Amino acid sequence: MTEAVAGKQIGRSVPRLEAHAKVSGRAEYTHTMRLPGMLTAKIFRSTVPHGRIKSIDVGAARAVPGVFAVYTGEDIRQVIPEPYYGPAFHDQPILALDKVHYVGEPVAVVLAADPHVADQAVQLIVADYEELAAVFDEVEAAKDKVLVHEELKPASTFADLKHLKGRKGTNCALDFKLRRGDVEKAFASAAHVFEHSFKTQKVLHLSFEPPASIADYKGDSVTIFTASQGPSFVRTEIARLLGWPENRVRIKVPYLGGGYGSKLYIKMEALAVALSMLARRPAKVALTMEEVFYTITKHPTTFRIKTGLDKNGRIVARQCAIWWNGGAYADIGPRVTQKSGFTASGPYDIDNVSIDSYALYTNLPPAGALRGFGIPQLVWAYECHTDMIARAMKRDALEFRKQNLLRDGRPQATGTILKDVAIEKVLDRIAELLKWKAPFDHGNGTLRRGRGLAIGLKAVISPTTSVAIVNIAADGSVTVYAGTIDMGQGSDTAIAQIVGEVLNIAAETVRIVPRDTDVTPYDMGTLGSRSLFHMGHAVRLAAEDAKAKIASLAREVGEPEGSNVPLAELFRKKYGMQAGNIVGTGSYKPDYVPPDTATGLTPNATPFWMAAGSGAEVEVDTETGRLRVVRLINVADVGNPINPKIVETQLSGAALMQLGFTLFEKMHFDGGQVSNASLADYKIPGIHDVPAMENETVAAWQSNGPFGAKGVGELATFGVSPAIANAVDDAVGVRLTELPLTAEVIFRALRDKAGNPLKDE
Amino acid sequence: MTTRTINFTLNGRVVSAEVAPHHNLVEVLQTQFALTGARESCGQGLCGCCTVLVDGNPVSGCLYLAAFADGSDIVTIEHLGGPNALDPMQEAFIESGAFQCGYCTPGFILMAKVLLENHPQPSDDDIKDYLSGNLCRCAAYPEIVNAVKMAARRKMAG
Q: How many alpha carbons lie under 13 Å from residue A624 in its C-beta half-sphere?
């Protein structure tokens, strides 16, 4: 065990503060919590992808002994007249009203003290729908032939969505545009032009603690226990729905059994509140694993990318069009569309760029953010595309990237000058670990080997705010109030290390208060690898404020400057006993300039950039198409790592999650119905799927970061998929443009290449 | 709903519970004994989050009917270690950083303990085979293998 000592907190692998609670099984999660007198909700869900509700017969369900109540959307309206929620659009009803928009949409709820009774009663509900035409594909949805919603209802939160208010006749929830230079002219004079199209599939987070919320409504206040990555937003949104001031809404968040983006913004909370209001009892909504498949997912995408090169192989123009399949409700899709969309041209230095990024409604379960906020979908396309160009031009994939790499001091597509981005070091290190320049054994016979690499760039979402409090008790012990949610990424420990560094105490002695909006101040949300940077600054500032107050207390009680009198002694001198507090506060919001609405350009798109990539060695069995990842290398620029061990597990975990999305994970649909909604049919990576892995950070420093640090949680997802597809091409000469890379897909591609295509089933 | 009384040993104490035929072991542990270390996640016995030991054998508590526990000896994650000390396997999980969100961790720890009881010096393949019925969405698998090896080494060293 590392020793708990003061004076060197940054860069030390402090064991997680909550480690004891987690290994002893005593860590608390919302899904297993209970309140006295609590009722449990079970949800009746739509069986059609798009339809008008003709009738809902709840009579038989109501008659089941032990059922407390059965509610439909119309009942919800009694307590919340405008029951539509969402972070970007107020489009999602608590329970379906008038229409259903996807298979699995909540339509009615049974409440009972015994969850088994509720479960049984749900089976007796019968709904009748007038089925409407449905649209599932994002490119098809963009044609607006079938409309998912009659009218767009943007929230007032985001200025760039206001123009969509009341818009009719469209499925497009945001059309973000970026125009830099003159793309048409550059293409016209380009020596070579390449155009390819790529797709990603629908996958999901599958947190092992499924979504869960418990609401306890008391008439003039409501307390919500919830598995949420963003309690501040939940409070704001519930207060809005109720027409209340925020201080009557209290959100408490215990540990999260995984999140990865699935527990952001508002999910089950509004339903739990409405049920508790109607029932006048605490009400719990805790989903089963099957229901998770109908809750929130990752955006499938279609990405058409076109690149022009001059005769020297310099990229002179790039045109990107991305269609994001947002499903039936916008959730945070429009933010993904824009905030990731503006990086769609990749980490390359290109004078002429055009990006069109479309958020689209379809009749599928909604899509949100999943470990990368859209970036993995983009990197998949642009890094496959990069390799295809290099191959066609007979250029080395590494050298071609280096020739065109976007380096510090040069403008990214938005015009924002790149700073503190060690992407070249990342690329070089991947190449070094792969021994890129050395000869590579491509195998022979039916087992062929190949290798590939890929790099990605992300801008942290901006502008966002974090606020924190550092409270020093009269015995000198330190408590931190910070709204960042520790869902496994180790943020509590990193926060303690930053506070410990400022106050010169061991991180292990710092207590992080469990999240509770009655005590923890505002934080925008635990998302997009923003917390270590933003909350890191807020707690640093709060600790510095507290430190200044300690100095003034020392002066007040007559201690000389720099005296090492224990803190507890200072309190005793001032208050005559062990009494009092020192409270330091800190708040952080980075500078930001919104993009020009016409061009998408801005001199300051983001406070920091994240760069990462992967290298892969693979083996393909040409007789079966079976793909084995022999070796996976993940390298990232995380600035200065606050906790090296936690950083490494974050890189490893993110890469393995993306490996699942690359090799086998896929939600299958049949007429809008998920046909593999269980862990039995939807395979995720297990212990046997772990390849030989190396995870590294490069020496880097984020000059505006807290102690040189920046985010890490998503980084190792960026390059995994394209690195593997590039390696497959290197091994067997087939190019796969759609995820996942299953044996069947590879085998079909091999047969196509051999001029002997397999018949479709 | 007819219920019946079952008697069993839970974490070293003789207890009884009123159970219906459809109650599984996890919900009885959670609702009647406030033990939430075993958690239902996939509900199909595939993820291992609900692992408990019945007469020394690991079972998926989400599929194991509580009525079957009658007369048996049940051990949950909460029984490991003492008031001031953790079990060596728990220590090894902490030192190896073998978890992130922690939801699946109790299942892995119980399974790994049974592994070492049956195979005191497991190879990497032994560990992977034994733990292949436990899933971790945070994918802390490399660290979990390290933790089991660390605990095995220490156990052999006495």
A: 6
Q: Given this model, what pLDDT does residue A163 score? A: 83
Quick one: average pLDDT of A150-172?
88
The answer to whether the CB of A532 falls within 8 A of the CB of A715 is: no
What domains are defined for chain A? 19-28+464-588 (3.30.365.10), 33-134+205-292 (3.90.1170.50), 297-461+596-753 (3.30.365.10)
Given a contact cutoff of 8 angstroms between Cβ atoms, the answer to whether A663 and A629 are in contact is yes
- The answer to whether B102 contacts chain A (CB < 8 Å) is yes
Q: Which residues does A560 contact at the CB level (< 8 Å), separation at least 6?
A: none
- Residue A6 has a pLDDT of 63
Q: Which of A15, A206, A649 sits opposite B137 (nearest CB)?
A: A206
What's the ipTM? Answer: 0.98
Give the distance from residue B55's alpha carbon to the nearest chain A alpha carbon, in angstroms. 20
Among chain A residues, CA nearest to B29: A32
* 3-state secondary structure at position A338: helix
Task: Kindly tell me if the per-residue pLDDT of A527 is higher than 60.
Answer: yes
B84 → chain A, closest CA residue = A20
Burial class (CB in 10 A: 0-12, 13-18, 19+), A727: buried
Q: What average pLDDT does range A256-268 have in this prediction?
A: 96
pLDDT tens-digit series, residues A719-756: 999 999 999 999 999 999 999 999 999 999 999 999 99
Residue identified by tokens 């208050």 is A575
Q: Does the distance separating the beta carbons of A16 and B137 come in below 8 Å?
A: no
* E strand intervals along A154-310: 172-180, 192-200, 212-217, 222-226, 249-253, 283-286, 297-298, 301-309
What are the structural domains, with CATH classification, of chain B? 4-78 (3.10.20.30), 88-157 (1.10.150.120)
